[in-house]
Inverse folding.
């Protein structure tokens, strides 16, 4: 059950952070056959299928800085900011679903990722209280990890498109469809016990007048106890984002025995 909750939390995280990107801007809009931000990638909706239009909306998140907010049925919340082109992001998460006052702070600056755990989890994981931040090389995170952001798809568009099925328009800026999580390697193993439930996870999405994805909601209530709707919103596009690494005196390398936290 714990692994399942971690997988669900990871899906929420990759949806929020992955779609917004935490690395250099993606050079190809999956499903559109054109460079991100190009005229072809953002052509009039009437000339695209709903899936391609949604892909273009997600890809545009790699073009500007933004604010990100996420709520997972009250069991997990996150807020933060990211600048995909600068390769920086800063997130603060409250993981009540994993027990009590569990909190996680995350900063990503290029290939350097820093994580700080709070609450009881922080007490059990942090060996040196004077160095609460754990550092890891993001380029060495396993391919199947919830925290992995593919170099050739930092916006996460390709992975999400592969999993999307039956995308439909619901108005000028609305979409709906389902996700087949078994098509996403990082969740296939941890959710395989769910069978067909993992192949039909409903979602809705909304774009703005500029063609950017502004909201995505996954209804994961059918995946079991402790899960529910995950709503992620993107806003404040273009607002300057500055993220700095924690002071070196407060940072320790992520212990090898804890590598499973990000490579599970």
């Amino acid at each position: 059950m714990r692994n399942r909750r971690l997988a669900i939390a990871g899906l929420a995280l990759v949806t929020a952070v992955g779609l917004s990107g935490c690395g250099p801007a993606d050079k190809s809009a999956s499903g559109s056959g054109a460079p991100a931000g190009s005229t072809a990638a953002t052509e009039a909706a009437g000339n695209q299928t709903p899936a391609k239009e949604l892909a273009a909306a997600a890809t545009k998140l790699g073009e500007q800085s933004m604010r990100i907010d996420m709520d997972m049925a009250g069991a997990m919340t996150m807020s933060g900011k990211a600048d995909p082109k600068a390769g920086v992001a800063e997130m603060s998460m409250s993981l009540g679903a994993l027990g009590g006052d569990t909190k996680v702070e995350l900063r990503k600056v290029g290939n350097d990722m820093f994580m700080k755990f709070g609450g009881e989890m922080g007490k059990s994981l942090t060996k040196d209280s004077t160095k609460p931040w754990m550092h890891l090389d993001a380029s060495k995170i396993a391919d199947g990890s919830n925290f992995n952001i593919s170099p050739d798809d930092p916006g996460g568009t390709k992975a999400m498109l592969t999993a999307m099925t039956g995308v439909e328009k619901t108005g000028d800026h609305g979409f709906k469809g389902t996700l087949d999580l078994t098509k996403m390697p990082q969740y296939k193993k941890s959710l395989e016990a769910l069978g067909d439930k993992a192949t039909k996870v409903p979602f809705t999405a909304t774009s703005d007048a500029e063609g950017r994805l502004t909201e995505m909601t996954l209804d994961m209530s059918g995946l079991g106890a402790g899960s529910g709707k995950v709503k992620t919103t993107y806003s404040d596009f273009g607002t300057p984002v500055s993220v700095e690494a924690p002071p070196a005196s407060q940072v320790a390398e992520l212990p090898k025995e804890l590598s499973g936290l990000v490579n599970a």
Summary: The radius of gyration is 18 Å. Helices lie at 2-20, 50-59, 119-125, 157-163, 185-188, 260-263. The longest strand covers residues 76-83. Residues 2-263 form a domain with the outer membrane lipoprotein receptor (LolB), chain A fold (CATH 2.50.20.20).
